[in-house]
Amino acid sequence: AVFVIKNEQGLHARPSAILVNEVKKYNASVAVQNLDRNSQLVSAKSLMKIVALGVVKGTRLRFVATGDEAQQAIDGICAVIESGLGE
């Protein structure tokens, strides 16, 4: 699933932490990739790896989830990104 980040300041520590906490709710392995920088897939459960993706407003992120609750994880990620990640 691909989502566009709408936050003015991108994904700095606070919104990244909200994203990580959402991902950790699910029994699923979730990876994320910055499509605009052609980054490697990294764990969406790692705050440092998400911050290191260098996400700014308008960045396209691709999430890949596997496991029992993969679809629920993607739906949850969609909801928190659409809600502005606490900002």
TrEMBL record:
Gene3D superfamilies per the UniProt record, alphabetical: HPr-like
A cellular-component GO term for this protein: cytoplasm
Superkingdom, natural source: Bacteria
GO biological process: phosphoenolpyruvate-dependent sugar phosphotransferase system
InterPro entries: HPr-like, HPr-like_sf, PTS_HPr_His_P_site, PTS_HPr_Ser_P_site, Sugar_PTS
Record's signal peptide: none
The keyword Transmembrane helix is annotated on this UniProt entry: no
UniProt entry keywords in alphabetical sequence: Cytoplasm, Kinase, Phosphoprotein, Phosphotransferase system, Sugar transport, Transferase, Transport
A molecular-function term among this protein's GO annotations: kinase activity
Domain HPr: 1-87
UniProt-annotated location(s): Cytoplasm
Protein name as it appears in the record: HI0448-like protein
Organism this protein belongs to: Haemophilus influenzae
